[in-house]
Amino acid sequence: MRVNNRKCVRRIGVRSLLTNKRRNIIAIAAIALTAILFTTLFTILMSISSTYETNTFRQLGGYAHATFKDVTDEQIEKLTSHKLIKEYGERTVIGIAAEAPFTKRSAEISFMDENDTKWSYIKLKEGHLPTSGKEVIMDTEALKLLGVEPKLGEEVTISFNIMGIYDESAVVTDTFTLAGYWEFDQLCPVHFINVTKEYVEDFNKMVAEKGYSSLRTDLDVMFSSSVDVESKLIKVAEESGFTLNQSDAENYIRFGVNPGYTFSRGSDIFTPGTIACILAFAILVIFTGYLIIYNIFQISVAGDIRFYGLLKTIGTTSRQIKRVIRIQALALCIIGIPVGLLLGFGLGAILMPVIIKMSNMSGNALTISTSPVIFVASALFEILTVIVSTAKPGRLAAGVSPVEAVKYTEGSGITRKRKTTKGAKVVSMAIANMGRNKKKTVLVFVSLAFALVILNSVNLFVEGFDKEKWIAASDATDFVVGNTGYFKFMGGERGAMNPEVAEAIKDNTNPSLWGEGYEITGYLVYKATEAQHQEYVDTCPGGQPHQKPQEDGGYYIGSYIEAFNPALAESLKVYEGDISLLNDKSGRYVALLSDDESFKYIKDDPNAFKVGDKITYATVKQVLALDKRTGEAPGEGVMYDENIEEEFIDVTEHEFTVCAYVGVPYSISLRKGTFGKDAIIGVDTAKEVFGENVKPIFVALNTDSEADEAAAEQYIGNLVEESGEELGYESKEIKRKEFEDFKNMFALFGGVLVIIIGMVGVLNFINAVMAGIIARKNEIAVLQAIGMTGKQVKEMLVTEGLIYTVGAGVIALVLSTVLVPLLNSTIEGMFWFYSGHFSVTPVLVMIPIFAIIGFLIPAISYKGLTKVSVVERIRELG
Amino acid sequence: MNILEAKGLKKIYGEGENKVNALRGVDLEVKKGEFVAIVGTSGSGKSTLLHMLGGLDRPTEGEVIVEQKDISKLKDEELTIFRRRKIGFIFQAFNLVPVLNVYENIVLPIELDGAKIDKEFVEEIINTLGLSEKKEALPNQLSGGQQQRVAIARALAFRPAIILADEPTGNLDSKTGQDVLSLLKVSAEKFSQTIVMITHNDEIAQLADRIIRIEDGHIVSKGEGR
After folding, report:
1. What is the domain-level CATH number for residue B122?
2. Is residue B171 part of a domain?
3. Per-residue pLDDT band at A80 (split at 50, 70, 90)
4. Per-residue confidence (pLDDT) for residue A786, from 0 to 100
5. B74 in A contact zone (CB under 8 Å)
6. Cα separation of A229 and A216, whole Å?
7. Average pLDDT for residues A333-355, to the nearest whole number?
8. pTM value?
9. DSSP state, A212?
10. A556: closest CA among A653, A474, A479?
11. So what's the pLDDT on residue A267?
């Protein structure tokens, strides 16, 4: 009984598939829907991963696997002939421009070959790679900084230092012809300015004549895959007769592995929390798909139960019948899956920008992954779901006893006697029918009611987001305008706010409050006692260098100080003390930063400064570090842990009095912090004490009326857009939009959830109605034969349907009424910007819609039934 | 030699109040090549007996022995395979697979078994039953008599040990019924088949070699072999 019986099983499977068109359409739709969900999920995951990866490589300036540094032509030839090297590119850097206009981001003048150009994310918008003479290509931002129009053939004059030499005599100025340019990429760490190989060769000769050491050429290489780049690199070097380990050896070559390939990639986006969310979603999808597909097949198997019984009678084994069902399912997959893959990929691509916007990934560059993994994995998951979903209907069909098949009627076992004197009323018959399969009836009620409850909860949740709470909490003022660096996460060194721009904003808006924020630059520390220092070392993450105490026994700990003008200081939240002293010319006062949570502990903390205490801050010019193991200054790459001793030697101390403990709203804070004592001071005191080190970083303003706010929004928006300054801004208006986006995201995901659960509910309902009708086909025929009119049958079926749907609606209404207050208090605890309220409107709206569904589905199913005459239906009884 | 034997066959449906004794201990022997008719009124247990004999249903008590093998001990899967190899069924309601054409229906049990189709033999059956013109037709394109002839062909195609026929003429008018039955008898003789047929029609029963009467779950007359 092997092999060649498969053909006829397949034939039965496929042929009987074709007779059941309506079932097929629904099943294909269900398969496609599940496939859409899987593909969307995988598309988003893979796209997030590749976006993250691309961002990383763009920040690193390229995606070549590794680099051999400072190599000669001869070495290049030897290395590149190795079989592991799939592709390679050369780059020779001739100089660096770090002076104006490239102070912010330096420019590297180099020759790159075609591969290297590609691997450095250079995609020319116009023009060609530099090939002859003094041709040059660069990005649009570099052109802008040099004051050159992005037009091919333009003359560009650039001044730069010869690579590696930083004295005045090594500055070269030359004029080039623009051969091409590309769109500037914010993430790229430098401006690449690429010249021709010919120019580089001439330049090299000139450098040699001047007596400088010759320029270095780096060889970037690509292996066949990014797995274990370092050992491949070592293998290539060693087998080509070089060493990467002994720096004093003659055949030593310096090398570098692209850190993008060595860091654990994506580990900071795929946290256990996110992975749990992803898994939960995948399980939800499988479960949904299972319920839908299972239902459809269960209905169709129940409908064809006699057919399977017949197959069994003539000798089809259980296993063969299961295969018939599986073949049908897989045949439907052939249509459903490709449709689902395409639509799912599209949906994923549409959703990606929203997700990237919501996440805090740096740079908004978006890569939609087209990796085959998406499609293969989605298809496999889908097939798995289908196989799992059809297993039980398959068992039902396979397990049918040939004799029973003839008699199959749902719940035909007599359970108890019915005592009634009223005769057979349509409604009581309907109720009795629902009692036949209690498990199924309960499932229908529960799944329909569940969908409504979820809908109501999602609506409650989304509608409860309080816009004003959201805005009020994060914004101290209506507008904050500052240097772009100020608004970036992990800003590092930030540019100053141009005072002229600040003045212009003040003149052109009508501020009711005008605030100015300043940062004290340079290395700033506060003087800690030994106990305070110990506490700092204990709580600080990672190893800390050992600090040599000052003569008076004090230690220095890094801290930030922000300065406010008097008006802005009013926005501080005062926990204790008097902030008006910040502007008191008679003394030097600081307000220490705290927050709601930590301020509770300050009173009882013996190490904490109290209001009225003196605190010493200091600016540090020099710190000597000593590696205790070697007795020398720590080498490059050495961790600053307890083996390093630090000595602060060039320090200027300033004493202040603590006048208050305050909280600073995030929007006007420095947006960064230390483990030291961060503080706020008045701007006048700041200028008096720190002088040059006081740098304006932002202005903040309020407006009085809506008209003023709109006008200011317009003015500042334009200014930021068009001034050419490095300006950024935040406003209540932007926050409102952010809020809407945030709310919409929840509405979107909640909506999808509701639709999925709703579909499951409705399908369960359809299943119950259809299965009920199919199972009672003969019974209904007999009822009609003995005088029940078609209208009465329909009435009976519709009554059943209405009891299901309206009943579920009422259950949902009761449940929601109980649940809403409970949800309110839970969500309020989770989201500070949520305002609880009572609402069951969605359930009330849905009840009539459910009533329509409850009417239509039995009515349509009945119509299908009447296509076959009563006599034929009775004869089928066999 | 007995090809089919039933020993102390009992079948009880339901429990307690609803208990129905369909068979109350039936003993039966059928010799190879015999054509036996089982007659009885409705509710006498004749259909139940046939289901037991064909392995469609399991007896509550007793044994069914086909070719010296007790089939009531077989597992479900084994029983199905046994059935398609050893027993050909003919039903009142024809029970053809609606999606397969005449030829495919006839060879279905053989194909399900993965066995090689004896084309010559199948052709011979088809010719004997006068179906050569209808090989490509689907069941719903055939008359009742034609459908029953296809069912007979299907029952014969795998050369089963026994053919069990449950009211094979019940859905046919008496003329067609007579014709179909004659064909069944002719084919059975030609291919030396054993037939056990249920009917409530005495006229039809007269065509058999032996008539067994069953009443209320008991065999009341075993008839005489001719």
Report:
1. 3.40.50.300
2. yes
3. confident
4. 62
5. no
6. 23
7. 88
8. 0.59
9. P
10. A653
11. 52
Is there a contact between A800 and A430 (Cβ–Cβ < 8 Å)?
yes
- What gap in Å lies between CA A77 and CA A71, rounded to an integer? 10
Are the C-beta atoms of residues A222 and A64 closer than 8 Å to each other? yes
Q: With contacts defined as CB-CB under 8 Å, which chain A residues touch B109?
A: 314-315
Q: Which helix (H) or strand (E) holds A173?
A: strand A171-182
Question: A242 is written with which tokens?
Answer: 């070089």
Residues in B closer than 8 angstroms to A2, CB to CB, are: 114
Specify the DSSP element, H or E, that contains A795: helix A790-830
SS3 (DSSP) at A462: helix
Interface of A with B in 390-419 (CB under 8 A): 401-403, 414
- Which DSSP string do the residues of chain B spell out, in sequence order? -EEEEEEEEEEEES-GGG-EEEEEEEEEEEETT-EEEEE--TTSSHHHHHHHHTTSS--SEEEEEETTEEGGGS-HHHHHHHHHHHEEEE-TT----TTS-HHHHHHHHHHHHTPPP-HHHHHHHHHHTT-GGGTT--GGGS-HHHHHHHHHHHHHHT--SEEEEESTTTTS-HHHHHHHHHHHHHHHHHTT-EEEEEES-HHHHTTSSEEEEEETTEEEE-----
On whether any CB of chain A is under 8 Å from the CB of B173, the answer is no
Q: Is A117 on the interface with B (CB under 8 A)?
A: no
**Contact with chain B for residue A778, Cβ under 8 A:** no
**End-to-end alpha carbon distance in chain B:** 16
Quote the pLDDT of residue A874.
53
What residues contact A830, with CB distance under 8 A and at least 6 apart? none
Q: Compute the average pLDDT of residues B179-186.
A: 83
* pLDDT tens digits for range A89-132: 989 888 888 777 787 678 889 999 988 888 888 888 888 989 88
**Chain A residues with CB-CB distance to B89 below 8 A:** 313-314
Residue B153 lies in a domain: yes
Sheet holding B61-66, edge to edge: B20-31, B2-13, B61-66, B69-70
Chain B within 8 Å of A878 (Cβ-Cβ)?
yes
Q: Is residue B21 part of a domain?
A: no
- Bridge-partner residues for A625, per DSSP? A646
Q: Minimal Cα distance from A13: which residue of B? A: B99
Which residues in B lie closer than 8 A to residue A15 (C-beta atoms)? 99-100
Of residues B69 and A58, which shows the higher confidence score?
B69
**E strand residue ranges, A510-588:** 511-520, 523-528, 546-547, 555-558, 561-564, 573-577
Q: Give residues with Cβ within 8 angstroms of A832, minimum separation 6.
A: A469, A473
Alpha carbon distance B122, B157 (integer Å): 6
User: What is the number of structural domains in chain B?
Assistant: 1
Closest partner CB to A314 (pick from B76, B84, B104): B84
Look up the domain containing B199 and give its range. Answer: 32-56+75-207
Taking the C-alpha atoms of residue A784 and residue A792, their distance in angstroms, rounded to an integer, is: 9
Among candidates B223, B162, B220, which has minimal Cα distance to B193?
A: B162
Name the residue among A3, A11, A318 with its Cβ closest to that of B114. Answer: A3
How many CA atoms are closer than 13 Å to the CA of A562, on its beta-carbon side? 27
Distance of CA B170 to the CA centre of its chain: 14
Show the CA angle centred on residue A496, arms to residues A490 and A500, nearest 5°: 145
Q: Write out the two tokens for A203.
A: 């330049």
C-alpha A28/C-alpha A288 separation (Å) is 15
The reply to whether residue A11 touches residue B83, judged by beta carbons under 8 angstroms, is no
Does residue B86 fall inside a structural domain? yes
Nearest by CB: B56 against A2, A313, A414: A313
In this prediction, residue A810 carries a pLDDT of 92
Distances (CA, A) of A592 to A528, A582, A662, B113, B115: 14, 11, 6, 88, 92
User: Which contiguous run of DSSP H or E holds residue A188?
Assistant: none
Contact B111 A18 (CB under 8 A): no
> Which chain A residues are closer than 8 Å to B76 by Cβ?
318
